Amino acid sequence: MRTTIKDVAKMAGVSISTVSRVINYSEYGVDAALKERVWEAVRATNYRPNQNAKSIVTNKTNTVAVLSPDVGHPFYHDIIIGMNEVALKDKYSVLLYNTNGDTDNEQAALDLIFSRSVDGIIFIGYFEEKLKGLMERLPEVPIVVFDELMQIQNVGQIYVNDAEAFYEMTQYVIECGHTKIGCIMGPAQYAIVKNRLAGYKRALSESGISFDERLIVQGRLTEESAEGPAQYLIQECGVSAVLCFNDLMAYGVYKKCMEIGKRIPEDISVAGFDGLGFSEYLNPPLTTCCQPGTEMGARAMSLLLDKIKGAQTKEEKICLKCQLKKRASVKRIAI
Amino acid sequence: MRTTIKDVAKMAGVSISTVSRVINYSEYGVDAALKERVWEAVRATNYRPNQNAKSIVTNKTNTVAVLSPDVGHPFYHDIIIGMNEVALKDKYSVLLYNTNGDTDNEQAALDLIFSRSVDGIIFIGYFEEKLKGLMERLPEVPIVVFDELMQIQNVGQIYVNDAEAFYEMTQYVIECGHTKIGCIMGPAQYAIVKNRLAGYKRALSESGISFDERLIVQGRLTEESAEGPAQYLIQECGVSAVLCFNDLMAYGVYKKCMEIGKRIPEDISVAGFDGLGFSEYLNPPLTTCCQPGTEMGARAMSLLLDKIKGAQTKEEKICLKCQLKKRASVKRIAI
DNA sequence: CTGTTAGCGCCTTCAG
DNA sequence: CTGAAGGCGCTAACAG
Fold first, then answer.
1. Based on the domain organization, do B19 and B87 belong to the same domain?
2. B56 contact to strand C (CB, 7 A limit)
């Protein structure tokens, strides 16, 4: 059986209240000699307070839940690393729930989260409508999401300057002499998709290139989902550049180009978004917008912990900057 | 305040024991009418049992901890997905601790794990010596690791037929006509490294190719760590093929080849190990051994849950098979 | 079949 | 400054 506070008290020859005071650094002073005896006993018995027992009396679990439909997405890994680091530093534990986008899994995860009375929740990869639904089924705890929400109040939000970044990237491609620029977007429910699309449109319009609806194709943010659109854009529309709303889809474009014998960047320029580590290792290296994943994760967790601790001063919306990485996948062509 | 079992009892007009019996599907029958009234009250109040309170009396947390030095490693993602899926299905929650290989973080994570009295622990990415150290500091709970352990008993083990798989891959490369085959290995503490090296040696010896110590270079399993070794093997040793102990290092080789103007596979053949999804999108696609990551994760969690539930019949060691993916990165050359 | 009671390990008044 | 006592939400005997 694990050693309990009783064992420690007995060994130190004090009451359990005293032990509790000592190990919780209570404001009430404790006689130095007693204090030392208690710590002695703690060490000797290798005592660790039972977090579950603490939780039921303090109503604090020192635990946060992270819910995502797809923890497999490589961009989330940096986020998860950043989150974990901050949480660990503050002695918080992270419960990870992956739903695979499955409704049953979602319900199961929500139930577990609810029953464990976590101190806060972070959502990764949900769009606003969905989030609203999920949040309704959960108790009121501090929440942080990776997205910019327009309608939901009092929720911490971490995101990047998508629109601006995609604008900048598009502009760069235009500067390189491209005028027929295809775009593989994602599901329109996501704010990030709307934002990036807006950036694309603005860049075209500022350069006097008329927006052509047909050059915008829908992907599902996975590699495979970009292969069909790539073929369409390249072979049917004859674009000279393909911009993808994330790096994974750019990989799909690379693959399709290999298949149909188009060389990157000689025949087709390609760019992505996210700045996955892999993208640097493609041949040619992928031009992309780097999102500061680890920092986003860290900031999200910091924000959540602040909210948990009741710090009201912090900004609820945190917008970080992307960085355009100009690599060989985009070619400067003669105009 | 959250609704408690008392609220439900009051609303249903029964005692809390009855409520407990109903919601826990106790073997003692409960009068159908009462049962219905209880469920009614549960629904009406949206009652969820407090897992923490349950834990302190049942001594079961329905929680498992996963500890890894690097959850960012892409191969672990599939594992984590598989684990989560199985856990969720069985109403277990997964606590994820990432240590970044930092000793302080490790201690912090172990403390948290200890204090939360988890039902089981899974270690990802530790070698045997390290594991021993970690396990000593933890209470006795069921444990599963991703590795084959020689000295530690009573620990669930999930691994693949490394040696055989690497043997097969090496043999394939030899069949393709290569005789001067460089190898970028990893830190020798890892069993997987020893195994794969053994496979490499066996293949050479069976083909009558003498083993040359100088063609074995040490990497650290990261992309960057393979770049120097790649240059050495290619430019100084003049190998025609480079085998890497994981895919990440193969990416490093790709990068270095790009830099020094060597074409893959025309000038140099390259192979990896792991079968990351990304490897298919390289140009040329990478020849590699696919480890069944998701299945490994799922099996690991199943094994752990079995152990937790006291099922003794199961095999403690589970060895899964890799699958060689022959792709364009290895060229058949004239002998 | 159902309710009463006694803890689980801990924190937190409240007396001393 | 310290100990005794009550209670957090729940389960598990134990009586009825």
1. no
2. yes
Taking the CA of residue B27 and the C1' sugar atom of nucleotide D9, their distance in angstroms comes to 22
Residues A220 and A130 in one domain: no
Query: How many CB atoms are located within 10 Å of the residue B13 CB?
Result: 11
Whether B196 and B78 map to the same domain: the answer is no
- Using the predicted structure, report yes or no on whether residue B39 has a pLDDT greater than 60: yes
DSSP-assigned states of every residue in B149-212: -SS--S-EEEEE-HHHHHHHHHHHHHHTT--SEEEEE--TTSHHHHHHHHHHHHHHHHTTPPP-
State the CATH number of the domain containing residue B110: 3.40.50.2300
**Which of B77, B109, B283 faces A282 most closely, judged by CB atoms?**
B283
The pLDDT confidence band at residue B299, using thresholds 50, 70 and 90, is: very high
What DSSP string runs through A146-208? Answer: ES--SS--S-EEEEE-HHHHHHHHHHHHHHTT--SEEEEE--TTSHHHHHHHHHHHHHHHHTT
Residues A182-199 have pLDDT tens digits of 999 999 989 999 999 999
Strand D surroundings (CB within 7 A): A 14-18, 21, 28-31, 34, 53, 56-57; B 1-2, 4-6, 16-17, 20, 23-24, 49-50, 53-54, 56-58
Contact A71 B84 (CB under 8 A): yes
* B324 occurs within a structural domain: no
Q: Is B71 on the interface with A (CB under 8 A)?
A: yes
Number of residues that this document lists for chain B? 335
Asked if residue B331 belongs to a domain, the reply is no
How far away is chain A from the Cα of B211, in angstroms, using its nearest Cα? Answer: 31
Rounded Cα gap, residues B21 and A178, in angstroms? 70
Average pLDDT over residues B205-219: 94
Give the 3-state secondary structure of residue A143. strand
**Residue A139 sits in the same domain as residue A20:** no
Contact positions of strand C to protein Cβ (< 7 A) = 1-5, 7-13
Which A residues 260-279 touch B at CB under 8 Å? 277-278
Is the residue at B9 inside a domain? yes
A83/chain B closest Cα distance in angstroms: 10
pLDDT digits (tens, 9 = 90+) for A108-121: 999 999 999 999 99
- Per-residue pLDDT reduced to its tens digit, A69-96: 999 899 999 999 999 999 999 999 999 9
One domain, residues B168 and B269: yes
Q: For residue B114, what is the nearest residue in chain A, using CA coordinates?
A: A48
- pLDDT tens sequence across B302-332: 999 999 988 765 678 999 999 999 999 999 9
Domain count, chain B: 3
Which residues 152-211 of A are in CB contact (within 8 Å) with B? none
Task: Identify the CA nearest to A248 among candidates A217, A282, A222, A284.
Answer: A222
Range of the domain at B99: 59-160+293-319
- Chain A contact present for B280, CB below 8 A: yes
For residue B156, tell me if it sits in a domain.
yes
Question: Is the domain of B274 the same as that of B182?
Answer: yes
Does A41 lie in the same domain as A102?
no
Same domain, B154 and B299: yes
